[in-house]
Automatic annotation (TrEMBL):
InterPro entries: Rieske_2Fe-2S, Rieske_2Fe-2S_sf. GO terms for molecular function: 2 iron, 2 sulfur cluster binding; metal ion binding; monooxygenase activity; oxidoreductase activity, acting on paired donors, with incorporation or reduction of molecular oxygen. This is Nitrite reductase (NADH) small subunit. Residues 43-137 form the Rieske domain. It comes from Geodermatophilus siccatus. Transmembrane segments: none annotated.
Length: 139
């Protein structure tokens, strides 16, 4: 199924992948603590206009904190929210066409694979796209 057809537009980030609705076998996990969302689940986290061009914003997708960026060329990117170096808020980082720069100590990470160009541990990058004005992140 294409991600574009599987998106539900909800006020809060909720699973959009069939079989992951609340109560379905994929998410009806019993036991202590919250279950991690199944890998590959898509979530509508907010409206595209919530992220001004050239900036980033933090969202939660299925319990996963993510940073979503809209570059000045209109492209969207999503990464983990916290920098692996010392927990810096990546959504507040500087962006260019190739990399995200953490605001705390200026380590840089490539959009394509999350690898650091300055020697830090890599960050996780997530597939993200726009559908009907909604930002859809796959975690
Ligand atoms: S916390 Fe991000 S570079 Fe140090």
């Amino acid at each position: 199924m294409s991600a574009a057809t599987g998106v539900r537009h909800l006020e809060a980030a909720r699973p959009t992948t069939p079989g992951t609705e609340p109560g379905s076998p994929a998410t009806d996990v019993r036991g202590p603590g919250p279950a991690a969302p199944p890998r590959g689940t898509t979530y509508a986290v907010g409206r595209v206009e919530e992220v001004p061009p050239g900036e980033g914003r933090a969202f939660v997708a299925g319990g996963v904190q993510v940073a979503v960026f809209r570059l000045r060329d209109g492209s969207l990117h999503a990464t983990q929210a916290a920098c692996p170096h010392a927990g810096g808020p990546l959504a507040d980082g500087q962006t260019d066409v190739d990399v995200l720069v953490c605001p705390l100590h200026l380590y840089a990470y490539r959009w394509t694979d999350g690898a650091s160009t300055s020697g830090a541990a890599p960050i996780r990058v997530y597939p993200v796209h726009e559908s009907g004005g909604e930002i859809v992140v796959e975690v």
